[in-house]
Known about the structure:
Blueprint: H1 2-11, E1 18-20, E2 39-43, E3 46-53, E4 56-59, E5 72-75, E6 79-87, E7 100-104, E8 115-116, E9 126-131, E10 135-137, E11 141-144, E12 154-164, E13 167-171, E14 183-184, E15 193-198, E16 201-213, E17 222-227, H2 228-240, H3 242-245, H4 267-274, H5 278-281
Helix pairs in contact: 1-4
Amino acid sequence: MKYILLALSFIALNAHAIIIRHDVKDTNYLAKPDDFPALATFYIDGAHGILFSSKWIITAAHTTFCLTSGTKIKMSKGSATVKRLHIHPNHTPGISHDIALVELLEDAAHVPPATLYTRNDESGLPIWFIGIGGTGNGNTGITTDNYENKGVLRKAQNRVEEAKGPILTFKFDKDEDALPLEGISGGGDSGGPAFIKTERGYQLLGISSRYGGGPSEKYGSFEVYSRVSYFVPWIREVMNKPDKAVSSGVSLDKLKYLPGGLKPSDLPALCPDILFSHNELSK
């Protein structure tokens, strides 16, 4: 239990929990795996990635601290096995380039992937978030953390406030400025998607990264996502030559900086506590 609680602080460090409108029932925000089938989950208390090709998952770099070759992760249907990590070499915690690719050992052919959004017109677009992070509302802030949430999946709406360089920014609006299911994502939802659904399927615009300022966990707070369109050239470069990406410096196979004071010596005890067991993966 000590290490599960420790993990909570690391997973939730960069962003806060999914917070919903105070004037809309929580049940309206509840989601099903089919609402975004490409969602992957790394740990029992959260942290996500998105399948965007049969053997590739994209996520926030800071979520990957327990992922190594052979790690099993949960998919919307079944599971997948990590072959190798590709972390952006310019990842700077709390600042920028919080993005990584998880190369899978085998095709996840049983899961329909999302597609990467490549246009640079994201500003003002209405999007969806989804994840198993904790919850609360815009007046109270977080009242249930991601461990207490026990894997309940929620989705929320928002609108891209700003698209600039490698970052998308979202604001938690209220009253007449809010969307019907307005909310923000956060701890336990790190690495999760900002997405739209079109005639061509689900398109991925951003990856949940960190809290961006304003009243923490309440109306008026900001959320920062890694901007997928900005990183498409890097993503393609890694995918074109994955066996040479690490040796050539295009990617890193592990984090240079562990999140929030976590030390390498913590991982052998921490990771088995929070990674999915065989029984949990088969549920």
